[in-house]
Design brief:
The protein has three domains: about 1-120, Rossmann fold; about 135-220, Alpha-Beta Plaits, CATH 3.30.70.1450; about 230-285 and about 305-330, no CATH class. It is about 35% helix and about 20% strand. The chain contains twelve helices and 14 strands. The protein is globular. It starts with a strand and ends with a helix.
Length: about 325
C-alpha cells in the first residue's frame, strides 16, 4: 500500500517504522528538519520536509495514496489535512484527535467528513486498561460489534482442563456459545479444526459475548473477580478517561493528582471519584506556626503530634459536574 503519514512525532515515527517493516511504501510529511533527517537515515522511506498544506500533499503524490494518517499535534490540522487529502483522491484517511470535545463532534460527523477512522490515543489506552481490569485472567481483550462481542486471549497452564482435549470436545463440554478463533503455539498461529488438540502453554483466542466468556472462565477455573477499587496516579488525559470508564463499570476510583487546581477540576467534573492531593498537605507543613507557650500546662509531648495524612481535594462547587469543568478538564 502507498501510505502517507503526516507528522513525525512519537506516533508518526512508530507508525512509519512498523508499516515500513511490513513492506508498505511510506511517505512522511514533517516540517521539523531534524526529525526528517533521523527518519530518512534510519528507515527506507520517502520524506517531505514541509508544512502540511495542499502543495506538500501533492508533492507526496496524495492522488496515488491508498491511505493517509494525520498524526500531528493539532487536531484541527489533522482534520483539515484529511479533508484536503480526500479531495485530492486519497482512498482512506485516518485522523488523530486528542481533544475530547473535538473527538465527540468529529466522531459524530465521521461519515459526512469522509474519514475512515478517528482515533484518540489516550482514550484507546484507557479503554484497553479498563478491559484488562475487567478480565484479569486474560492477556488481551478486544471488543467489536458495538461491545456486544469480545475477543479474549488467555494462556493454558498444565492444570487447565482444556489440555489434551480437542476443539470438538471443547464445544460439547465448555463451549456455551463461544468460538475458538485461533490458537498460538510456539509463535505460530493456527486456525483449529475439530480434531485440533490443546496443549499446555498454548495461547487460545475465544470469541463470544462477555457474559458467556465469563461463564467459560468459571468452568475452566481460571476466572478472577474483576477489580472492585482502583487507585490512579496522575490526572492527565489517560487518568481521567480511565476513571470515567471504571466508574461506568461500577468500580470505585481513587485518583492522586499533585496539581491542586487540576485535582479540584477533576473532583468538580467527577464527584464520585475520591481525589487526593498530596501537595495540599506539603503546603500545610510549610506554613509558619505560632511559637508555643512557655507555660508547662500548654506543653505537649512530641509523640502526641498527629501523623501526616493525605488531604482530600473537596472544592466548594456543586456536587454535579458542570460543563465548564468538563471543558477545562478536556483541554488539559
Amino acid at each position: 500500500m502507498n501510505i502517507i503519514i503526516v507528522g513525525a512525532g512519537k506516533i508518526g515515527s512508530a507508525l512509519a517504522k512498523y508499516l515500513s517493516v511490513e513492506g508498505h511504501s511510506i511517505t512522511v510529511i514533517e516540517r521539523n528538519s531534524e526529525r526528517v533527517s533521523r527518519l530518512s537515515t534510519s528507515l527506507d522511506i520517502m520524506t517531505v520536509c514541509a508544512s502540511v498544506d495542499i502543495d506538500s500533499l501533492r508533492l507526496a503524490r496524495a492522488e496515488e495514496a491508498d491511505l493517509l494518517i494525520a498524526a500531528t499535534n493539532s487536531d484541527e490540522s489533522n482534520i483539515l489535512c484529511c479533508l484536503v487529502a480526500r479531495k485530492l483522491g486519497v482512498k482512506n484517511t485516518v485522523a488523530r484527535v486528542r481533544e475530547e470535545t473535538h473527538f465527540r463532534e468529529v466522531l459524530f460527523l465521521e461519515k459526512e467528513l469522509g474519514l475512515s477512522l478517528v482515533i484518540n490515543p489516550e482514550l484507546a489506552c484507557a479503554n484497553e486498561i479498563s478491559r484488562v481490569l475487567r478480565f484479569p485472567s486474560a492477556t488481551k481483550v478486544d471488543t467489536f460489534a458495538g461491545d456486544r462481542a469480545e475477543l479474549v486471549e488467555f494462556k493454558l497452564k498444565a492444570e487447565n482442563p482444556l489440555c489434551g482435549t480437542t476443539v470438538s470436545d471443547y464445544h460439547r463440554t465448555f463451549g456455551d456459545g463461544t468460538l475458538v478463533a485461533a490458537v498460538v503455539r510456539n509463535g505460530k498461529a493456527f486456525i483449529p479444526t475439530a480434531s485440533f488438540s490443546f496443549k499446555a502453554d498454548d495461547s487460545v483466542l475465544i470469541v463470544g459475548a462477555p457474559r458467556r466468556i465469563s461463564r467459560l472462565f468459571k468452568k475452566l477455573a481460571i476466572f478472577k473477580e474483576s477489580s472492585r477499587s482502583v487507585i490512579i496516579v496522575g490526572g492527565g488525559r489517560v487518568g481521567v478517561y480511565l476513571a470515567r470508564e471504571l466508574l461506568s463499570a461500577g468500580i470505585e476510583v481513587t485518583l492522586i493528582e499533585n496539581n491542586r487546581m487540576l485535582a479540584e477540576e477533576i473532583k468538580d467534573a467527577m464527584p464520585q471519584v475520591e481525589v487526593l492531593c498530596p501537595r495540599v498537605w506539603c503546603c500545610a507543613l510549610q506554613e509558619p506556626r505560632p511559637p508555643p507557650s512557655r507555660t508547662r500546662a500548654s506543653r505537649a509531648p512530641m509523640h502526641s503530634s498527629p501523623s501526616p495524612a493525605w488531604t482530600r481535594s473537596t472544592p466548594s462547587s456543586a456536587p454535579t459536574p458542570s460543563r465548564a469543568a468538563s471543558a477545562r478538564l478536556s483541554r488539559r
